[in-house]
Amino acid sequence: MFDLKNIRENPESFDVGMKRRGLAPQAEAILALDEDARRLTLEMNDLQAIRNTASKAIGAAKAKGDEDEFKRLMAEVESVKAKLPALEGAQKEKAETLRDLLSGLPNIPAADVPDGADESANIEIRRWAEPKSIDGAKEHFDIGEALGQMDFETAAAMSGARFVLMKGGLARLERALACFMLDLHTGEFGYEEINPPLLVRDEALYGTGQLPKFKEDLFGINTSEQFWLIPTAEVPLTNIVREKILAEEDLPLRYTAWTPCFRSEAGSAGKDTRGMIRMHQFSKVELVSIVTPEYSEEEHERMTSCAEEVLKRLELPFRTMVLSSGDMGFSAHKTYDIEVWLPGQGRYREISSISNCGDFQARRMMTRCRKKGEKATRYPHTLNGSGLAVGRTLIAVLENYQQPDGSVVVPEVLKPYMGGLENIEKVN
RNA sequence: GGAUGGGUGGCUGAGUGGUCGAUAGCGGCGGUCUUGAAAACCGUUGGGCGUUUGCGCGUCCCGGGGGUUCGAAUCCCUCCCCAUCCGCCA
What we know:
With 428 residues, this protein is α+β, with helices and mostly antiparallel strands. The chain has twelve helices and 17 strands. It has helices spanning 4-9, 11-20, 27-64, 67-103, 140-147, 152-159, 168-187, 202-208, 234-238, 296-314, 360-365, 390-400, and strands at 123-128, 150-151, 165-166, 192-193, 199-200, 220-222, 226-229, 245-247, 253-262, 281-291, 318-322, 334-342, 347-356, 368-370, 381-389, 408-409, 423-424. It folds into two domains: 4-103, Serine-tRNA synthetase, tRNA binding domain (Helix Hairpins); 119-424, 2-Layer Sandwich (BirA Bifunctional Protein, domain 2), CATH 3.30.930.10. The protein is elongated and about 105 Å long. It binds one RNA strand of 90 nucleotides through residues 38, 41-42, 44-46, 48-49, 51-52, 54-60, 62-63, 70, 73-74, 76-78, 80-81, 201, 244-245, 247, 370, 372-375, 377.
């Protein structure tokens, strides 16, 4: 959501932002609606003021028993009342149209976000470790299936495409990865571990920006109560501060959670159909920070380094990209993607996305903050990032730690979490 | 699923038709006192929109929407949410 005053003062720069997002100019339509709504509000207010003063006078006249005055005032109010409903209706309609228009527009890209229509304009900003070249490197699904611990067929039989069932060492590896990540973020980076609801209401998804525009990407459940399955823990973690006024001395707030995520993947037909790159259900360790506006850029860098640290400790080569204006998510002001090297695919694949949303989500959630001793409130900035996508991290471990005999060596930092298992081998 | 009670300012909690945007307490802020702090005491303290150079003024907001009325936090309708008890269940 946007600050109307800002658009009024800088309509051109707003449209530049929209253009960078690949959208037509919006400011003229917004300002026309805004002006109409304000004009109607003004007229409405004037009439209401007449009505209100007259009503007070009526009360006084009645108390005094002044029948003539009473009748005169009643007549005055009558004429005002005849005009009011139409005005109120028109004003409401304009305001609603304006709100609907605004709530469907994406966040403005930061000044240092590269322009571009899609991912081809993303820019690599750093790289860590040399990609391993492995002779005859296999893809993760070949490795997992050969180990007898990654089963797409059984999953499909009960749930359909884009589901996987893992067992034994691989199931354990998934849990080990998540525990390792949580321990790192809570133990070293100051994030508080949260175990949030996985089903949320409309308002929560509106706050983070998935609704009203991206319904088709979500799974909903239709019982007597309407819920949505979270597509990411960003939703419950960010909504912790929904409709709250935070004390600025309590910021930054840093939350982390390991949760399943559910995505319909509508529009992804034919993409990544093999293996577990793109599932309807996957688990992810999420990071969310709520910070003062001055601090969000610094926090964005910090959060990115927290996610990168996971890969460093797992000794998985990666590169970090800054997304172009056309490739960023709806609520993002600036986004870094971390891409991990997959020897089996011979390419880098996204494993984390870290976004600074500025005040975009805070406005939608009505989250405000206030300095100690001050009256005025303002909107904090929100950030979210994967730290990391657990399923894809598992893929990266399989492909980078695969051995010629088909087994997979457990990375050093995961050993404490694997109950003595140091090498994942084929089960009979 | 059945029954009941509720949703009021940063928080707690009064308020059942006419200066109620709202009593009070807590919290916050300012001050007195104190070497300093605490305590005590005094004062002050909602948000949005519009308008004004400014002081200010107008209007809307007591869960959402609609209605009754000259006038609604207060009455009516409707929807949402929360809590408690019972039943069922991990």
